[in-house]
Amino acid sequence: MPVAYVHNERRELTDDHWGDVPSVIRLDGGRFTPEALLSLDSFSHLEVVFHFHRVEPGKIQTAARHPRNNPEWPLAGIFAQRGKNRPNRIGVSRCRLLKVDGLDVHVLGLDAVDGTPVLDIKPYLRQFGPREEVVQPEWVDDLMRDYYSGSPEPESPEATP
After folding, report:
1. Which positions fall inside the TsaA-like domain (predicted)?
2. What are the residues facing 133 on neighbouring strands?
């Protein structure tokens, strides 16, 4: 059962440019009071667990595929990537906390579209981060290159064919 919903300007399920997306995570006022968020503002970052509610059950992946359907990247099983078409449609994101205002949690860089149901909000603690060097395949660097960059520059009218 969701504890909150995401509110932002992002409506399309696009993969990149999440870094400058401001969002408000609005807690369910029927279940929570602002006390549920007491002291959250003493943290700089949050982990947000959410439901990929717009992924149709027929689109769920259970096997290997090329990430983002890019044949230049190797096949990777669904549990070896972070795509949205996951078996339980659960997403986890880390984002910057800007402020808490009543039942509203203002964040930056949450990679969830408007209307996304939030299942949990947790403060990010550096002690839960890896204690060893993080190792990952080279293709991940390519995949993530623009993920948290700012919005793409709009094309100039002269550049449009």
Report:
1. 1-133
2. none
What's the rounded Cα separation, in Å, for the pair 112 and 41? Answer: 21
Per-residue pLDDT of the chain (161 residues; tens, 9 = 90+): 999 999 988 767 666 555 577 899 999 999 999 999 999 999 999 999 999 999 899 999 898 988 778 888 889 898 988 788 889 999 999 999 999 999 999 999 898 889 999 999 999 999 988 889 989 788 887 767 766 676 554 443 443 33
Task: State which residues form the domain around 37.
Answer: 4-150
**Count of Cβ atoms closer than 10 Å to residue 14 Cβ:** 11
Residue 143, domain member (yes or no): yes
Q: In the beta sheet, which residues pair with residue 95?
A: 46
3-state secondary structure of 159: helix
Give the CA angle between residues 47, 50, 52 to the nearest 5°: 140
Tally of domains in the chain? 1
Residue 161 counted as domain residue: no
Residue 116, domain CATH: 2.40.30.70
Residue 46, SS3 per DSSP: strand
